[in-house]
Amino acid sequence: FHSGEREEKCIIEDVPTDTLVIGNYKVQRWDIHKQEFLESAPGLGMFVTVTTPSAEVLLSKLYGPQGTFSFTSHLSGEHIICLQSNSTRFVAFAGSKLRIHLDIRVGEHFLDESVVRAKDKVNEVNFRLEHLIEQVHHISKEQNYEREREEKFRKTSEETNSNILWWAIVQTLILISIGIWQIKSLRDFFISKKLV
Questions:
Q1: Which range marks the domain in which residue 139 is found?
Q2: pLDDT digits over 34-45, tens only?
Q3: CB under 8 Å to 105, separation ≥6 — which residues?
Q4: Is 38 within 8 Å of 102 (Cβ atoms)?
Q5: Is 67 a member of any domain?
Q6: Residue 17 gets which letter from DSSP?
C-alpha cells in the first residue's frame, strides 16, 4: 500500500487468543527525479504500534526501513497494527510518497530448512511431524474462536429480533391508543358543538 511520509496507516487483524503474529515489511521512497520508487529507503524507519481489542498497547517499537515484528495475542479479537514513518520533516515539507510492502502471518511457525537438512532422516520426519501437530492445534484453536464469534453473533441477532418484536407491539399499542383517543375527542367535539 502507499502512504504519505508522516501518515499513519492501520490494519485490523482478527486474532484468536495465544496466537503468534509475525509481520514482515519493506519501505520504498518515491524518487522525484527518477519518477519511480527506490529499492530501499535509507535513513527512514517505521514506527510499529499494535493495540489489543481492549485498547492496550501490545507493541510499540521503532524499526528500520525493512524489518520483522512479532507479538503474541493475549486476548481474542481485532488487533490494530499501525505503521508510521519516523520522518523528522515538518508535515508541510513531508510530501514524499512511500510504498510499504507488508506481509502478516497469523499463527504460522515456519520450518527452517537448513536445520531440517542438518538433521538425519528420522529427526527430520519427527521435526516435520511436530510442525504438523502444531499447525493442527492452531487450526483447532482458530475453529474454536470462530465458533465463539458465531455464538456471540447469534445471541446478538436473537436479542435484536426480540427487541424489534417488542418495539412493534409497543408501536401498535400506541397507535391504537392514539386512534381511540382521537375518536373519543372528535365525538366529544361534535357533541359539544351539537353536530351529532
A1: 127-164
A2: 777 777 766 788
A3: 21, 22, 23
A4: no
A5: yes
A6: T
